[in-house]
Amino acid sequence: MRVQATNSPSSFEVTTDGAGVVGHAGAALLRELADRVGLTAALGWQRLDGRRRHPDAAVLRDLAVMLADGGDCLSDLAVLRDQPALFGPVASTPTAWRVVDRLARDPDGLARMRAARAHARARAWAAGSDPEVELLIIDADATLVLAHSDAKEGAAGTYKHSFGFAPLLAYLDRGQAPGEPLAGLLRPGNAPPGATGDLIELVDLAAAQLPAAERPVLVRSDSAGGSSRLAWHLRERGIGFTLGMQLDAHVREAIFAQPEPAWTPAVEPDGQARPGAEVCELTGWIDLSNWPDGTRVLCRREDAHPGAQLRFTDHDGHRFQVFLTDQPDPDIAVLELRHRQRARVEDRIRAAKATGLSNLPFDRWRRNAVWLELVLAAQDLTCWTQALLLAGPLAVAEPKTLRYRLLHVAARIVRHARRLILRLQATWPWAVELARAFTRLRALPLRC
């Protein structure tokens, strides 16, 4: 029997005489957006040194763009630096290291970076990226970032028997669109997920990022944030809360004591009933004397998914989730849906790890804290790009998809009639979307 070969010989030649060809053309979109919304200017609080070829603000901007483009270490800045025709002069890796180190040594460095992000956020919202919702919801959650060396300051053993860091992150929920990063707090790996002091600091940092607006704010957290101290702090600040609650013996007794008519069908976002899920209110059955006035306790019971292994706290094939909230809405199904949607924060954190958070590359704590802020700035740029410049599937695309379709596109730079032109490949399926994004970008007011 004869088998026909499927491998064909190469049908093209390879030469090294190309000119004007650039890659990562879409990353220039992020770089110019940082200038347009004033992020670059706000990062330039340092007194300029005439001997520095690269201002610190430009270096920090380029590091954020590099992270949004998929880099995860300082040396990845070469992606921009090796294409001067598109990105102009870009700092070397040692120069970028010195900028990060200088910022880490500045006692006010992190605070100024956060203020710069808040300034740019206000500009971006004014330009059209405001989520335009009646309720601003902040999701707080912890994650683990592994370290492969004990030489990194602050790295420690985690509750999952790994080794590294346990940062806290806060995101503004924008529905199905990518979440907007608000704040991050670097912590050692052995930090407890429910450390109330850390959560209070995170919430305060996140609230400071929101542009001034007469809109209510709500903080969501899982059971790690279910402390009366956090709730009282939020009440004093005029912020609502919906916080997970641990299922102890007293709570389980209250759940099992509920008659069947007390359970109301849970709902999906489209208003349809959620199959196998019901909600009831336990407020009168739980001692809430230590909690702010108006605090309520709600519970969802749900059939275990096929193949799921039941825990000892489960009952009659049901799983239970209990949370506390101070929202007065009489529709408990709507309140439960709102709390359940905090699960979207897991996607936001996953996107952060795809934008440089999976690697904290420095040996010193403060340098890694600066890196975390750069990761958040990179996610800011991605979020604002999708909100201001893109439409359709690209406006809600994951980082990997966005990079493949737009950011990593190759193009040719040509000069004609004293103009610099970036020519995209006509047959690239998303060339028109990228060109339109640049057109929308140039229509934004320039705030350098």
How would you sum up this structure, described in words?
The longest helix has 25 residues, at 365-389. The chain has 448 residues and is an alpha+beta fold. Helix 12 (345-357) crosses helix 13. The chain is built from 15 helices and 15 strands. The protein has helices at 27-36, 39-42, 56-68, 78-81, 84-87, 93-105, 109-129, 196-209, 228-236, 249-256, 332-340, 345-357, 365-389, 399-407, 431-443, and strands spanning 21-22, 136-142, 145-146, 156-157, 163-165, 168-172, 180-185, 217-221, 240-245, 264-267, 273-281, 296-303, 318-325, 411-416, 419-424. Strand 4 and strand 5 (163-165) form a beta hairpin. 38% of the residues lie in helices and 18% in strands. The chain has a nine-stranded mixed β-sheet with strand order 7-6-2-8-9-13-12-11-10, with helices on both faces.
Q: Given the helix and strand composition, which structural class is it?
A: alpha+beta
Question: Number of helical segments?
Answer: 15
State which percent range the strand residues make up: 15-25%
Write down the overall geometry.
globular
Number of strands: 15
The share of residues in helices is 25-40%
Distance between the termini: 71 Å
Main beta-sheet strand count, sense and barrel state = 9 strands, mixed
- The H-and-E topology, N to C, reads as EHHHHHHHEEEEEEHEHEHEEEEHHHHEEH
- Tell me the strand order in the biggest sheet: 7-6-2-8-9-13-12-11-10
Report the radius of gyration as a whole number of Å: 25 Å
- Uncertain ranges: none
Whole-number mean pLDDT: 90
